[in-house]
């Protein structure tokens, strides 16, 4: 079979089958369909596995009646051999069933993880603004496991339902009274257990929401641990985490109470069913309506039917959990990207002038341009526009969390209202995306260019980049395209020699997650090295040297222009050491470009520029030149 790992093309390949997010049940049925023929193979194997368990008690009864009671040793031997063959067949089919069912489980589990990954690639930076990190991790991990468990229990429940009906038919053909008892037992179990499922589902939903919030808190604490230690905030955040952990425990205990109640009903009814079946069976034997062999068969069937009845209870439990998980998954998968494909895509000419309509900034191609602003958010916003990224205040969707005090119809109405609000927000996002973006390259607005082309040609390295665990080589060149000389050139330009030396093994040295083993300056230079190694046609750097010392910054400044010679480079910075090497500098005031020219000219002619760049330091360009030459 070539079905594992599961192939997932949704969200990033046009025309690929995307999850059905109309409702939790529609989504779960889509998950079943994604297993394809494997689900039906698993069901077939499960039905075969039920055959020995169904005919086994009947064979034992026949062996007693025709062999032992009749004193026919040959008949007894034949039935014993037949029973042995059925037992071996049942063991083999059980192994096959377990193999297939585990495969179904893994496909559902890892298929969900790949779906989350694809959705993250589709939404990009918008995902973390719309959905808490813990929620995304929970869908990828624990919810995917719930979907896998549902695949397993569904296959098993259907096969055991078929076995239950076959056994009922066998018993009914022998004894009408006992057959009716068998047929009534399972519906009675479902009828008595159903009222307990709704509060169990509600508390499981509360537990799921609190647990995802706890995961988000853990992620934030780990990510900001160094800062928390610096400001003495470990106890505060640790206390918040402990409090939320207790809330998760309380909701888990509440959900566990209802789960225990459901299981208690199952155990009570299944035990009572066996007692009633045996009481009725002995009366039938005493009255001569049943033989001893048939009574033994009914005892075997009574014990066997406990398994399907318990399976039906387990199915109800896992179905309830899966519906809760599906509702959370839909909240992630139903989000549409705030970008639309242009009706007539235009090509991107990276050798043309870039114009930002909002600020009025004009960036000449093939030169090193630096943007200065007294408000860093203004220059960062310009970088977002150049890369066609949504501004930070855009993209927030309505939360799917329902207040715990809302129950029943009120909760369903609130959930429907929020779903409609999300649809309306998505519609407004799409309408906004169809409007001109406001940044043109060679007169072509970026909204007319496929987003993939924009990402391919324009690279924005912002102030909050991610560093993943792995080798230094994979961090700098994740696609494995660089030669050693190219990687070393990027290393030299970023003045990251100490990063290389700090890792045992050089390029094969292992980085911790988020680059925790590196200082802030080393991590910043690692990110700069990665951005330079990508060799984008248009490179936008946001404060690339804010965490490094002056001598290191001067070395980077002296090498950056040569490294990017002939290609468009835009740097958002107010550092005199960098600005000294710029081909052109643009000054932003209140987000609007008010002056442009060489660094030395702006220092001499613009008081506004001096107030941003100098800030009480020596404005003498000769001093800056001396420091730059000394560092290089």
Describe the protein's architecture and organization:
With 632 residues, the protein is α/β, with parallel strands linked by helices. It has 3 domains: 19-175 and 306-336, Up-down Bundle (ABC transporter transmembrane region fold), CATH 1.20.1560; 176-289; 354-392 and 415-617, P-loop containing nucleotide triphosphate hydrolases (Rossmann fold, 3-Layer(aba) Sandwich), CATH 3.40.50.300. Helix content is 66%, strand content 7%. It is built from 21 helices and 12 strands. The strands form 3 sheets. Strands 6-9-10-3-11-12 form a 6-stranded mixed β-sheet, sandwiched between helices. A hairpin with a 2-residue loop joins strand 11 (584-589) and strand 12 (592-597). Helix 14 packs across helix 17. The chain is elongated and about 115 Å long. Mean pLDDT is 81; it is low at 394-398 and 623-632. It is a multi-pass membrane protein. This is Multidrug ABC transporter permease. It is found in: Cell membrane.
Which helices and strands occur, and which strands form pairs?
Layout: H1 24-34, H2 37-68, H3 73-123, H4 127-130, H5 133-174, H6 176-223, H7 225-231, H8 234-286, H9 292-333, E1 354-356, E2 362-363, E3 368-373, H10 376-386, H11 408-434, E4 439-441, E5 444-445, H12 451-457, E6 458-461, E7 470-471, H13 472-476, H14 484-493, H15 497-502, E8 510-511, H16 520-534, E9 538-542, H17 550-563, E10 568-572, H18 576-579, E11 584-589, E12 592-597, H19 599-605, H20 607-613, H21 621-631
Parallel strand pairs: 3-10, 3-11, 6-9, 9-10
Antiparallel strand pairs: 1-2, 1-4, 4-5, 7-8, 11-12
Helix pairs in contact: 1-9, 2-3, 2-5, 2-9, 3-5, 5-6, 5-9, 6-8, 6-9, 8-9, 14-16, 14-17, 17-21, 19-20
């Amino acid at each position: 079979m070539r079905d594992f790992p599961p192939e997932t093309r949704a969200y990033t390949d046009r025309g690929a089958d995307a999850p059905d997010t109309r409702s939790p049940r529609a989504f779960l049925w889509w998950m079943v369909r994604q297993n394809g023929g494997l689900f039906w193979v698993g069901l077939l194997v499960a039905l075969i596995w039920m055959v020995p368990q169904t005919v086994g008690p009947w064979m034992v009864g026949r062996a007693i009646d025709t062999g032992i009671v009749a004193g026919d040793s040959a008949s007894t031997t034949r039935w014993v051999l037949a029973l042995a063959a059925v037992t071996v067949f049942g063991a083999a089919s059980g192994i096959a069933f377990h193999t297939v069912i585990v495969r179904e489980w893994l496909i559902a589990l890892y298929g969900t993880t790949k779906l989350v990954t694809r959705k993250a690639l589709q939404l990009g930076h918008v995902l973390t603004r719309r959905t808490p990190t813990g929620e995304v991790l929970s869908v990828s991990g624990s919810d995917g496991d719930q979907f896998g468990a549902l695949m397993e229990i569904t296959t098993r429940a259907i096969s055991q339902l078929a076995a239950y009906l076959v056994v009922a038919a066998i018993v009914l053909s022998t004894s009408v009274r006992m057959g009716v008892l068998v047929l009534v037992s399972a519906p009675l179990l479902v009828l008595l257990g159903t009222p307990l499922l709704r509060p169990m589902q509600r508390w499981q939903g509360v537990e799921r929401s609190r647990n995802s919030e706890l995961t988000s808190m853990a992620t934030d604490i780990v990510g900001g641990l160094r800062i928390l230690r610096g400001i003495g905030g470990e106890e505060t955040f640790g206390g918040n985490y402990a409090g939320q952990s207790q809330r998760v425990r309380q909701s888990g205990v509440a959900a566990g109470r209802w789960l225990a109640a459901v299981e208690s009903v199952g155990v009570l009814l299944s035990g009572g069913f066996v007692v009633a079946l045996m009481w009725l069976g002995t009366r039938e034997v005493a009255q001569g309506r049943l033989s001893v062999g048939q009574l033994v068969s009914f005892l075997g069937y009574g014990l066997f039917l406990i398994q399907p009845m318990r399976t039906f209870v387990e199915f109800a439990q896992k179905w309830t959990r899966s519906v809760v998980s599906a509702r959370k998954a839909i909240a992630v998968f139903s989000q549409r990207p705030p970008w639309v494909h242009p009706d007539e895509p235009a090509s991107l000419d990276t050798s043309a002038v870039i114009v930002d309509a909002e600020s009025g900034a004009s960036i000449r191609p093939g030169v090193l341009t630096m943007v200065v602003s007294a408000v860093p958010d203004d220059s960062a916003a310009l970088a977002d526009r150049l890369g066609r990224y949504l501004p930070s205040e855009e993209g927030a969707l309505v939360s799917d969390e329902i207040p715990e005090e809302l129950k029943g119809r009120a909760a369903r109405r609130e959930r429907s209202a929020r779903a409609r609000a999300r649809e309306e927000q998505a519609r407004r996002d799409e309408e906004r995306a169809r409007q001109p973006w406001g940044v043109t390259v060679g007169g072509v607005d970026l909204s007319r260019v496929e987003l993939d082309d924009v990402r391919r040609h324009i690279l924005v390295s912002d102030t909050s980049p991610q560093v993943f665990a792995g080798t230094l080589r994979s961090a700098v060149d994740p696609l494995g395209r660089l030669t050693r000389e190219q990687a070393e050139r990027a290393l030299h330009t970023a003045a990251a020699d100490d990063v290389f030396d700090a890792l045992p093994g050089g390029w094969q040295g292992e980085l911790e997650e988020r680059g925790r083993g590196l200082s802030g300056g080393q991590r910043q230079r690692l990110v700069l090295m990665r951005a330079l190694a990508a060799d984008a046609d248009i490179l936008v750097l946001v404060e690339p040297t804010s965490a490094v010392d002056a001598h290191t910054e001067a070395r980077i400044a002296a090498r950056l222009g040569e490294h990017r010679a002939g290609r468009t480079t835009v740097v958002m910075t107010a550092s005199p050491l960098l600005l000294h090497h710029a081909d052109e500098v643009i000054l932003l005031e209140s987000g609007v470009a008010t002056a442009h020219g060489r660094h030395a000219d702006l220092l001499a002619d613009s008081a506004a520029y001096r107030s941003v760049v100098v800030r009480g330091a020596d404005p003498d360009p000769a001093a800056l030149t001396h420091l730059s030459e000394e560092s290089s």
